[in-house]
Structures are given as structure tokens and as C-alpha cells.
Specification:
- Helices cover 37% and strands 16% of the residues.
- The strands form 2 sheets. It has a 6-stranded mixed β-sheet, with helices on both faces.
- The radius of gyration is 27 Å and the shape is elongated.
- The N terminus is likely disordered.
- It is of the alpha/beta class.
Length: 316
């Protein structure tokens, strides 16, 4: 039999799926729903990881990750004659779990066919206690499945406010990825208009945008990728007069400037405003990136390069 999914490889190799199906370990979604509606004595056992549970679960479920099943299930469910329906995402892991529990002496344990994904497809209710809307939970589901992010991390991203100084070669990919990741508010400051020569690298903009302000073009592109992101535009140059006023409303400043005077201005304003400065610079096939955050105990740009190079010495 050809293996269709990488996460089922082990199960196919040791015959788990074929054996469990042959032994009748599965129960259909409709049958399970009917049992719950009739309030039959039943334990719904969700064996997914916490990051998966954050995307939604079946009302009344008991949670025990599959990796801890053998070690903890007897303490959690001491009555081995109680009916148990085990579920995971699509019904693969739960088949193996049902077989393991049968071997441990549980007499009435079944796997929910097609898992919670099938439950959702059938139109049955899924509980979600996070602050994410159903659309957000789906859009950012791959983030939420990462232990390093999870639902709480995604919520923090949605609350974050990042200012991009420049919507050119550095600011363009940064803006698209930040928007796609769900950073809730993006500020963009740039006084330039889109030029035809920009288009080979400044991927926020298109041929249609030539002659338009880069801030307007950027706002439109971000709206297409993620309409949930709030975009604040500043069609002006960053100066010593406006820098601190603009910076104060943002959590992080991303330096996409293409000249040294602006980069040093960003550094100095971040220093006095107490904001992290995400520094970037590129020339042809070489680039630099760093995080400067003196308030957090680190250095600033002037600690590394006390003064900008003389005008004309370094190409931009």
C-alpha cells in the first residue's frame, strides 16, 4: 500500500491501521455525535498536542497528548470499562491510541473516524476559547502549531505595531512577511514614488503603481495579502523634527533606509525613544542585519560605527 502521508509512515509499517480497522476500532462522526446528544456515558479523549487544541476542540473533551498516553491514561481513566472515543486531527493517531488502550485492558475504546477535521466538515460545533476568531485560527494555524508561537504568541503578533522606514528593496519583503504573519499594525514612512527601475526588487509594487506614492502602493499590496492588518502611512521624509513623534506609537522600528544619514537618524531616535532598531543594509550581493536595543542592555549603531562614512565614500 502506498503511503499517502508522512506522519502515517510508522503506522503503515507496523500494520497498526490495517489491524485496527479490521478489529472495528473506529466509530463514525455521526454515531459519536448521537451518543453525545443523548448524553450517554462517554469519555471523549483528545490526544492532540496543546498547539493543536488551541485551534478548537469538541465540547466536553478530556485532553491527554499522545506521547503521554501510555504513562498517564490509567491515572486519568481508571475505569477500563467506560466507553472512550479517542480523537486526533484526521483519525490516524487515534487509531494507534485506541489499539494501545485495548492492549492495556480498556474494553470499549474507539477511534473517531476522520478526526476533528471530519467533525468540522460535518458541520458540528467546535469550541475555541482563544481570543482568535475562527478565520484567524485558520489563517495562522501553521503558526499556532509551532510550540514556539502557539495561540498566545499569535495573539501578541496581532497586537504588535511595527514601523517600516522605507518601502523599497528592504522594506518590501519585510512588509509582506510581517503582514502575512499577522502583525496587527504596520506603519510605513516613505516620501518616494514608484519608479519603473524599482520593480525588479521592490516587490510591494507593480507596473500599475509606477508614479504612485510608495506608501499608497504598499498599503494596497498589504491589504491584498492580509486585509486584517491595519496600515498607517506617512507620505513624508523622516526628519529630526518628526522622528520621535512618529516612533512613539510603535513597538519596533525596522530600518529599510537606503542612505546613511537616515540610518543614523533612525538609530538616534530609537535610542531616545527606547525602541528596538532592526537594522538592515544591502549592496549588490552583500548585506548586513542586526538588532540594536540599548534599553534592553545592548549597543546601538553608533557603538559599532561611531560616525557615518563621508558622503560618496560608500555606494548606496
Amino acid at each position: 500500500m502506498k503511503e499517502e502521508r508522512s506522519d502515517t509512515g510508522k503506522a503503515f509499517r507496523n500494520g497498526t491501521i490495517l489491524e485496527t480497522k479490521h478489529e472495528g476500532f473506529e466509530i463514525s462522526i455521526d454515531e459519536t455525535h448521537q451518543l453525545l446528544e443523548r448524553k450517554e456515558p462517554l469519555v471523549l479523549l483528545d490526544i492532540r498536542e496543546p498547539e493543536e487544541v488551541a485551534l478548537g476542540y469538541i465540547q466536553g473533551a478530556t485532553f491527554l497528548p499522545q506521547g503521554l498516553l501510555k504513562e498517564r491514561v490509567e491515572g486519568l481513566l481508571p475505569d477500563k470499562n467506560l466507553p472512550v472515543v479517542v480523537y486526533c486531527a484526521v483519525g490516524i493517531r487515534s487509531l494507534a491510541a485506541a489499539k494501545l488502550m485495548r492492549r492495556m485492558g480498556y474494553t470499549r475504546v474507539f477511534s473517531l473516524a476522520k478526526g476533528i477535521d471530519g467533525w468540522k466538515d460535518a458541520g458540528y460545533e467546535v469550541v475555541n476559547h482563544s481570543q482568535l476568531t475562527p478565520d484567524q485560527a485558520t489563517r495562522y494555524s501553521r503558526h499556532i502549531l509551532l510550540k514556539e508561537v502557539g495561540a498566545e504568541g499569535q495573539i501578541q503578533l496581532l497586537k504588535a505595531r511595527v514601523l517600516l522606514v522605507g518601502a523599497g528593496g528592504l522594506g518590501s519583503p519585510a512588509a509582506l512577511y510581517l503582514a502575512a504573519a499577522g502583525v496587527g499594525t504596520l506603519g510605513i514612512i516613505d516620501s518616494d514614488k514608484v519608479d519603473l527601475s524599482n520593480l525588479q526588487r521592490q516587490i510591494l509594487h507593480s507596473t500599475y503603481d509606477v508614479g504612485r506614492p510608495k506608501t499608497e502602493s504598499a498599503k494596497d499590496a498589504i491589504g491584498l495579502i492580509n486585509p486584517g492588518v491595519k496600515v498607517i502611512t506617512y507620505q513624508e521624509r523622516l526628519t529630526s523634527e518628526n522622528a520621535l513623534k512618529i516612533f512613539k506609537d510603535f513597538d519596533i522600528i525596522l530600518d529599510g533606509a537606503d542612505n546613511f544619514p537616515t540610518k543614523y537618524l533612525i538609530n538616534d531616535a530609537c535610542y531616545f525613544a527606547g525602541k528596538p532598531n532592526i537594522y538592515g543594509g544591502v549592496f549588490q550581493f552583500e548585506g548586513q542585519v542586526s538588532v540594536f536595543f540599548p534599553k534592553g542592555g545592548g549597543p546601538c549603531l553608533r557603538c559599532l560605527f561611531p560616525e557615518p562614512p563621508p558622503p560618496g565614500l560608500v555606494p548606496s
